[in-house]
Amino acid sequence: MTAHRFDVRVYYEDTDMAGIVYYANYLKYIERARSEWVRALGIDQVTLRAQHGIVFAVRRIEADYLSPARFDDLLTVETGLAETGGVRLTLAQDVRRGDCVLFTARVVLVAMNMAGRPVRLPAELRRSRG
Predict the structure, then answer these.
(1) Domain parsing of the chain, residue ranges
(2) Residue 12 and residue 3: Cα distance in Å, rounded?
(3) Among 3, 73, 100, 119, which has the minimal tally of Cβ within 10 Å of its Cβ?
(4) Annotated catalytic, 64?
C-alpha cells in the first residue's frame, strides 16, 4: 500500500507561546490530508453529497503525540488505508518532519446519509488500497 502524502507548513498561528504546534492543530493537518486523499482517489465529496446524499464523519481517533513540531517546519502527512468495511474505513495517518514521526493517528470514518444514518461506502473507497 502506497501512502498518500500531503505537505503542510507550520505557521506562527499554529503554535503556542513556546513556539510549538498546539496539539489540536495536528487534527486539522490530518483532516486536510484526508480530504486530499479522497480527492486523489477521484471522489468529489461535494458531488457525493449533492447527488447521493453521502457524507463522511469521524467516528473515532486514536492519537499519539511523539515529538513537537515548531514554527516554520515543513511537515508531511502520510495517509494510508488500514481497513475497510461496508460503512466504515480506518486510516493510518502519520505527521512527519523529514524521517522523524511526530504524530500518529488511527482514524475511523463512517459514511452516512444526511439524516445521520450509516450508508454503504462508495465503491471507489471499497476498492481502494490506499
Answers:
(1) 4-127
(2) 28
(3) 100
(4) no
Q: CA–CA separation, 39 vs 58, rounded Å?
A: 17
Q: How far is CA 128 from CA 27, 29, 100, 115, 117, in A?
A: 23, 22, 27, 26, 23
**Active-site pick, 16, 44, 64, 72:** 16
- Mean pLDDT value of segment 28-38: 96
Name the percent of the chain lying above pLDDT 90: 80
Ramachandran region, residue 48 (left: φ > 0; alpha: ψ -120 to 50; beta: rest) = alpha
Which residue in 67, 66, 64, 72 sits closest to 13, CA to CA? 72
Question: Cα torsion at 62, 64, 70, 76 (round to 10°)?
Answer: -60
Residue 82: all three cell numbers together: 488500514
In the three-class reduction of DSSP (H, G, I as helix; E, B as strand; rest coil), residue 130 is classed as coil
- The x, y and z cell numbers of residue 44, run together, are 468529489
Q: Is 72 helix (H, G, I), strand (E, B) or coil?
A: coil
* Average pLDDT of the chain to the nearest whole number: 92
